[in-house]
Amino acid sequence: MKQKGIWNKVLLIGAVSIVVFSILYFFITKPQLENRYFTEAYSGAENVETLGEFLDGTIVTQTITTNADFIKGISVKFANFQSEPEGTVFIEITDDTGKCLKKQTVEASMLPDSEYYYIQFDDIVPLKRGTKLDITFKIQDGRSGAAVTLWSSEAFEGCRLVLNGEVIDKTIVMIPDEYRKSNFVIHYWIYIGIILAGFVVICIYQIKKEKEGVLNPLNEIIQIFGKYRFLLTQLVGKEFKNKYRRSYLGILWSLLNPLLMMVIVSSVFSFIFRFNIEKFPVYLILGQITFNFFSEATQVSVSTITGSGQLIKKVYLPKYIFPLSKVFFSFVNFLISFIAVFIVMAYYGVRPNINMLFLPLWMIYYFIFTLGISLFLSALMVFLRDTQHLYSLVMVALGYLTPVFYPVASLAPWMQKVMNLNPLYHYVTYLRNIFLYAQCPSLLDNMVCLGLALISLTIGMRYFFKKQKTFILYI
Question: Is 7 helix (H, G, I), strand (E, B) or coil?
């Protein structure tokens, strides 16, 4: 039975919700977002090697040209030849006017081996874009067999490295902690305006179709979702009962699985395959739960129509309710796994930050994206039974192509560009930015994630509803 005028309610409630939440987000995040994190490549992953032992009297000066508005510090990567180094390292950072921005003395024995050492300025230093900074290291009492050194990569444009008065064609491996001023107010409200305008256009179009009596896919979902929402809850509940039947821990496995996998994988990649990622277990578990939700939801959805053939033949049910129930079931597991994330964050000292308020928005993006893929696959499986086997192979490949357990910076430059073609990369990066790095997602980040979600849902819905009338002939 059609519910008349429902799109008028959707338009009113949706528009008010968008405006209210947008204003709330804006005033909460505005002080932090007026300056956005900015980093520029000053070194690379190729041709990485050390500069040799830094003996007594060694002087190394790295010059970089920064395009940031201010800087908080610089991370550089030391090494010590797997021995306890002796001596002292004097560090000095100056700008192109000769002004000293930072002076620091460090005992060589205190420097990490093959990990980043953070040189933090006493205060935030304002810069003019194009300013040249000299980072100088002077070594005292260093001796052969017990010396430190710096990692270096191929030379980069705008960088100049001098070792004991000789210019060498390399660049030390470094990550400046830089920021740029951003016109956040304009960008933010442009983004909100685009979302609101798009939402209003969709609602007006659906209101028109509703008056004409046209039951297109989106109208069909809205019209009958309320009628069958009880069935949806029953199907999700059934999934939980089937999955955890005769299990002593039951639903606790949704919490324990990501924790135990994080411990195992982080042990392997922290001690065997050394990835120098700060707070690697947090980095890992955020990538794991993101990938696992998509993998589980889409793989169980593939066979949901063919597996429900007997029920579909006997009674009328909205067929999309079956893949939707699978995605909802995986999403509930996904929500529970965030308890594990907060436990790991607390253990490794990652504090909650205000950017976590963007988590619900990210979840909406990701749920819509996953639902679209699930609808498409469940419909395709009806006509092509090899879909399930082929998709299993795709997920294996996607597991390695998504930066769950490795940093994107470890890839070759051309592979880093290819990585942008992987939708999961954008969702994983978005989540890590707001949780691990306390960064506000940019306008581009939101546009990309929203765009991928809408494209996925549009393709999935159109294909599913176009083919659903013939399902009964093939199941």
Answer: helix
